[in-house]
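> forwarded from #structure-qc
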C-alpha cells in the first residue's frame, strides 16, 4: 500500500476533525504493540487513514467483515519531529473495516460511503490539455497534465489501447501508423485513482507546411536557420529553394539561408516532398548592417560536441560535455579543444564550482530518468578528472551548488531505481557526504537553488511553492512565498543582485511572464515585473556585469521542444526600470539542451541544443556582444582596463585595484564563475563591491563581509566606467 501520510501529517494534525471522524479503538492489547498509539479513521468515499504515533514502524492488516476484502499496510515511524505518521488505504467493499496486528484487534470503523469534498479530504484532480486532438499516422502530439489538490503534481502517462501508439514521461504522444481513436491517460502519482484522458484521433489529412520564422531581417551576407514543419503525412521532408534564384541568396538542405551581398526582399520556399503542390514561404529582408546598438552576434563556431553542460574554469577556459560526446575543454585564446574523458557518463548530472576552483559533477546517466551516484572532480590545473566518494543514491537531473561554508548541496534527481531522490545531500569540505534526512521532500528535477541570508538555501522553482532549506543537522525545509504564475517547467532563474531573484518563462504553453523577489526582506513576496517580448520555454538567463539580465533561446510553441516556434532574438531586462529590450537575433535556434555562459571578456557564449526530445543537434556556439560594448553609433566602446589586482581576496578585506581609468569608474563587481545546464546557472552570482578612488590610478575596494550571498570560489572582477562599459575581467579567488 502506498503512503501519502508523510506529506499530509502536519496538515491533518492541525485539521483532525476535517480529515475524518468515527475512529474506534479495540480493547485487546498485543505484546509489543501499544494499541493506544495506532488509530483507524474513516475519511470519505472508500478512503481510510491509519495514524501511528509509536516510536517504531508497525505492520498491520485490515479486512472488511463479511466481504473477503483484506490487505496489509506498513506504517512508518513518525517522520522528523512530527507526532505521528499517516498512511492511507482504500477498499470498495461495504461494511465494517477491522484493523489488526497479528491476532490483536486494534480498531474498527464503518465504510460510510460519504462523498469526498475539499472540506473532509483534499481531492486530487487531474486535467489534460488538449482533451481532444487529431494527428497524422506516425505523428507526435504534446499533451500536458495539471494536478491540483496535492503537493505531488507528478503523473504517469499511458495509452489505453495496446496498439494505440506510445507516450513518454513528458507527455509526448507518438501515434501509430494505423488510423483510429485512442486514449492517452495521465494518472496522478499522489492518488492513482485520479486520472484524466486525452482522446486522440489518428487519421491522414491534407499536407500542410509551415516555415518559422515567417519573416526575418538580415544584414547582407548574413545567415539564418529556417525550420519547416510538415503535418498531414508521415513524410516530413521538404525541398528548400529561393524564389529569386541565386540573386536572392542560397539555402542548403537543412534550411540554412545565406543572404546575398545586395539589399532587397527575397523569398525562401519550403516545398513538401510528399505533395510538391504544397509549400510555405519565409520573407527575408536584406539590408546594410545596422549599428549593433542591440548587441552583435559573431559567426557560428563549430564545436566537437553539443555543449549541454558548460562551466567557466578559473583560467578562462570552458569545460563542456554532452550526451554522446566526450568531455572537452575549450581554450578561447587559441580556439582549441582538448578531450578530457570523464570517469562516468556525466550527461544530466549536476555541476558546480568548488571553492578551490575545481569542478564537481555529482550524478550522471545510466539511461533516461535513471541516475548514477558517482561523483567526479575536474582539476583545471592538470586538466584531469578524479573520482570522489559517491553519494548515497543516484541522481539524474539534480542541481548542485556551493554554500556559504564551502560545502556542496545536491538536491533532487532520479535514482538508479527510477525513483525521485527526495533526500538532499551535502558534501562536507573534507569530501565526506551526509544526508539531510530531516529535509526529505519531492523537489522537481533541476531545481533553481540560490544562497540565502543566514547560510540557508532558497528554492525558487520550478514548482511555484518556493521554500527555504536549513542544511544544519539533518536539515529542514520551511515554506516560502508562492509565485504568482504556475509552475515554470524549463523556465529560468537568476540572482541578479545579492538576495534578489528573477524567474522568467517556462511552462506549457510557454509564458512570457517574469517575477521578482527580495529574500532579504522580513516578509519576502513574489511580484510580477514586466513581461518579456516573447513567451519562452527552454530559456536561459545570464546576469551581466552591469546588473542587467540577458535572456537567450527558447521556444514559444506549445510542445515540449517545439523547434518550429523557436525564438531567435535575445532580450535584456533592466532592474532599474524593470523593462525589457528586444535585442538582435542569433543564427541557430537554441531550445532544449541549449546554454548561455558569461565569459571574462564580458561577452556571452550561447550554444548547444539537441541530443534529446527529437531536437536538432547543434554542436556549435555563437558569441554575443551585449549593447554595453558599443557606442550609440555602433562603433566599439572604449573599455576601462585593470592593470593590477590581487589573485585572492579575504572576506571583509580592503584591497587595491590599479587602472588608468580609475577616475571614471562607476562600479566594481564580482561575477562568480558559471556552471550551466538545462536553463539554469547554479554557480553564477553578481556581487557589487564598495569602492573609492583616492586619486591617481588606483581604487580602494572592500571585499564582501560574509559568504552568505557571495559563496567562496573563483570570481571575475570587473570594473565599469561611467557609461556602463565593462573591462575585461581579472580572475580572483574569494574566501
Amino acid at each position: 500500500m502506498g503512503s501519502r501520510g508523510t506529506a499530509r501529517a502536519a496538515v491533518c494534525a492541525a485539521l483532525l476533525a476535517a480529515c475524518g471522524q468515527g475512529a474506534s479503538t479495540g480493547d485487546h492489547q498485543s505484546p509489543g504493540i501499544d494499541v493506544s498509539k495506532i488509530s483507524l479513521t474513516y475519511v470519505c468515499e472508500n478512503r481510510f487513514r491509519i495514524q501511528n504515533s509509536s516510536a517504531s514502524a508497525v505492520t498491520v492488516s485490515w479486512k472488511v467483515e463479511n466481504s473477503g476484502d483484506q490487505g496489509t499496510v506498513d506504517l512508518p515511524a513518525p517522520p522528523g519531529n512530527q507526532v505521528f505518521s499517516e498512511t492511507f488505504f482504500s477498499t470498495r467493499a461495504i461494511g465494517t473495516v477491522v484493523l489488526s496486528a497479528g491476532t490483536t484487534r486494534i480498531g474498527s470503523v464503518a465504510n460510510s460511503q460519504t462523498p469526498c469534498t475539499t472540506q473532509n479530504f483534499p481531492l486530487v484532480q487531474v486535467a489534460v490539455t488538449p482533451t481532444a486532438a487529431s494527428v497524422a499516422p506516425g505523428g507526435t502530439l504534446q499533451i500536458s497534465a495539471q494536478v491540483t489538490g496535492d503537493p505531488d503534481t507528478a503523473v504517469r502517462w499511458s495509452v489505453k489501447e495496446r496498439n494505440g501508439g506510445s507516450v513518454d514521461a513528458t507527455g509526448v504522444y507518438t501515434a501509430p501508423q494505423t488510423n483510429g481513436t485512442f486514449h492517452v491517460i495521465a494518472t496522478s502519482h499522489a492518488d492513482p485513482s485520479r486520472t484524466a484522458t486525452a482522446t486522440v484521433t489518428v487519421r491522414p489529412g491534407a499536407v500542410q507546411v509551415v516555415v518559422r520564422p515567417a519573416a526575418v531581417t538580415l544584414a547582407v551576407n548574413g545567415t539564418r536557420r529556417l525550420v519547416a514543419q510538415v503535418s498531414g503525412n508521415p513524410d516530413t521532408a521538404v525541398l528548400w529553394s529561393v524564389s529569386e534564384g541565386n540573386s536572392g541568396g542560397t539555402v542548403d538542405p537543412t534550411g540554412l539561408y545565406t543572404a546575398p551581398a545586395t539589399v532587397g526582399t527575397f523569398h525562401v520556399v519550403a516545398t513538401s516532398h510528399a505533395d510538391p503542390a504544397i509549400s510555405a514561404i519565409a520573407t527575408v529582408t536584406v539590408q546594410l548592417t545596422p549599428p549593433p546598438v542591440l548587441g552583435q552576434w559573431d559567426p557560428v563556431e563549430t564545436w566537437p560536441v553539443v555543449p549541454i553542460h558548460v562551466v567557466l574554469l578559473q583560467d578562462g577556459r570552458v569545460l563542456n560535455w554532452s550526451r554522446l560526446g566526450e568531455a572537452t575543454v575549450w581554450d578561447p585564446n587559441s580556439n582549441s579543444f582538448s578531450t578530457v574523458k570523464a570517469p562516468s557518463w556525466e550527461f544530466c548530472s549536476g555541476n558546480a564550482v568548488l571553492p578551490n576552483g575545481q569542478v564537481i559533477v555529482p550524478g550522471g546517466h545510466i539511461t533516461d530518468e535513471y541516475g548514477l551516484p558517482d561523483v567526479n572532480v575536474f582539476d583545471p590545473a592538470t586538466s584531469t578528472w578524479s573520482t570522489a566518494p559517491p553519494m548515497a543514491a543516484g541522481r539524474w537531473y539534480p542541481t548542485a551548488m556551493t554554500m556559504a561554508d564551502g560545502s556542496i548541496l545536491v538536491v533532487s534527481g532520479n535514482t538508479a531505481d527510477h525513483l525521485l531522490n527526495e533526500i538532499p545531500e551535502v558534501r562536507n569540505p573534507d569530501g565526506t557526504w551526509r544526508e539531510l534526512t530531516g529535509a526529505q521532500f519531492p523537489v522537481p528535477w533541476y531545481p533553481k537553488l540560490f544562497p540565502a541570508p543566514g547560510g540557508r538555501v532558497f528554492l525558487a522553482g520550478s514548482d511555484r511553492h518556493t521554500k527555504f532549506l536549513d542544511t544544519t543537522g539533518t536539515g529542514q525545509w520551511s515554506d516560502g512565498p508562492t509565485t504568482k504564475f504556475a509552475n515554470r517547467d524549463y523556465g529560468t532563474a537568476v540572482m541578479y543582485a545579492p538576495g534578489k531573484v528573477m524567474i522568467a518563462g517556462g511552462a506549457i504553453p510557454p509564458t512570457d511572464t517574469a517575477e521578482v523577489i527580495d529574500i532579504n526582506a522580513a516578509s519576502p513576496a513574489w511580484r510580477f515585473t514586466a513581461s518579456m517580448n516573447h513567451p519562452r520555454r527552454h530559456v536561459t538567463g545570464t546576469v551581466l556585469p552591469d546588473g542587467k539580465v540577458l535572456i537567450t533561446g527558447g521556444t514559444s510553441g506549445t510542445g515540449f521542444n517545439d523547434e518550429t516556434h523557436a525564438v531567435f532574438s535575445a532580450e535584456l531586462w533592466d532592474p532599474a526600470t524593470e523593462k525589457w529590450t528586444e535585442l538582435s537575433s542569433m543564427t541557430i535556434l537554441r531550445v532544449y539542451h541549449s546554454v548561455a555562459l558569461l565569459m571574462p571578456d564580458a561577452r556571452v557564449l550561447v550554444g548547444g541544443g539537441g541530443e534529446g526530445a527529437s531536437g536538432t543537434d547543434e554542436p556549435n556556439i555563437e558569441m554575443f556582444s551585449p549593447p554595453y560594448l558599443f557606442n550609440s553609433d555602433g562603433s566599439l566602446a572604449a573599455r576601462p582596463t585593470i592593470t593590477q589586482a590581487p589573485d585572492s581576496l579575504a572576506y571583509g578585506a580592503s584591497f587595491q585595484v590599479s587602472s588608468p581609468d580609475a577616475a571614471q569608474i562607476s562600479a566594481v563587481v564580482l561575477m562568480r564563475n558559471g556552471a550551466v545546464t538545462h536553463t539554469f546557472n547554479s554557480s553564477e552570482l553578481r556581487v557589487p563591491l564598495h569602492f573609492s578612488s583616492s586619486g591617481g590610478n588606483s581604487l580602494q575596494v572592500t571585499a564582501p563581509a560574509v559568504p552568505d550571498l557571495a559563496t567562496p570560489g573563483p570570481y571575475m572582477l570587473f570594473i565599469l566606467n561611467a557609461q556602463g562599459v565593462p573591462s575585461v575581467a581579472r580572475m580572483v579567488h574569494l574566501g
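QC bot note: The helical segments are 5-14. The CA atoms of residues 643 and 658 lie 5 Å apart.
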